[in-house]
Prior knowledge:
The chain is an alpha+beta fold. Helix content is about 40%, strand content about 20%.
Amino acid sequence: MEHTKTVVCKLETTEEEFNKLMDTVKAFRSACNYISEVAWNQRCFNPVALHHLTYYETREKFNLPANLAVRARDRVAKSYKNNRKKRHKFTALSMDLDKRLFTLLRNGEFRASISTVYGRVRPGLAIGEYQKELLKNPVRDAKLVCRRDDRHFYLHITVLVEAPEPSGSNPVGVDIGVNNLVAASNGFKVNGKPVESRRRHFRKLRSSLQKKGTSSAKRKLKQLSGRERRWVNTILHQISRAFVDTLSEGDYVVLEKLNGIRDRCNVRKEYRATFHNWAFRRLQEMIEYKCLERGVPVVYVEPKYSSQRCPRCGTIDKRNRKSQALFQCVSCGFQHNADYVASLNLSELARGGWAAVNQPNVGADDRLCETTYKPLPSSWRGS
């Protein structure tokens, strides 16, 4: 079974190579904005029709190679596929590269051959042994990105990696939340309070800079945004990896469908920023692809009543949820952490559903009341 994996590689460029790449990504960005303007004014969002409207003009105006003009059109068409309510403006310094625009050179040292408006450049890759091993796999495509905060180019290379066929018979339910970032039925749990404390710190900084409104404050806001995004991404990677490492042979992961979670969940005003800005789906995606790398299947189930159903007797009652953290069944007295109970219910749903309500000894037994909760390591708290 093949799956894709993205390898991020820093480019070692000379000043001349950097300037050529910078001119090219700026031309690519301008081409995207030009195509976006045409698409919006003409109400034309089909990639083939958009190609006939813009291809020759794009090449002439911005001096782009043929395939870069095509990639710019595809980026615009893909953007409007998701949202056609307003005209899209492109600001990122990046461009998409296919096999004709990018070649990975592995002759002794790893280099990248990239097409620019001035011809080809061949910068080296500043990578370690882990990246080198991954880059031995077949390359599919790449994306060139310039990070504004450190003024370096990075190449995001997509490779095709072989993975075992997914198989497993023991469901492990996973509840994703804010107070507990992950609570799994195998006992793995990550406390979200240290992460939320750091996120509040970022929000206060943003609020303070926005009130100032000076040009230096706006520059600082951009830097802060990039730093927060990278920090959150690192946290999610570390949490998902730590969870996947706890899985045993024969396990498969059960995640809840999150469609409409922000609409159906009511939260108090002071917690709205926390809830609506957290990357629930992103964390699930990281868990999913890390599982598939190891041949661990991932299934999604509807989470209806997963926080109100008793995992021992099956009773569904709103009163079972005593508080955000405490679950206590009004029928049989079963008591445990509410997020852990939700993960147990998800695993039972994956087995094929529940027996009739109020039948005893269905789902969890008394041994499941004792589980090992793992706190968030101090290294995950950021600086």
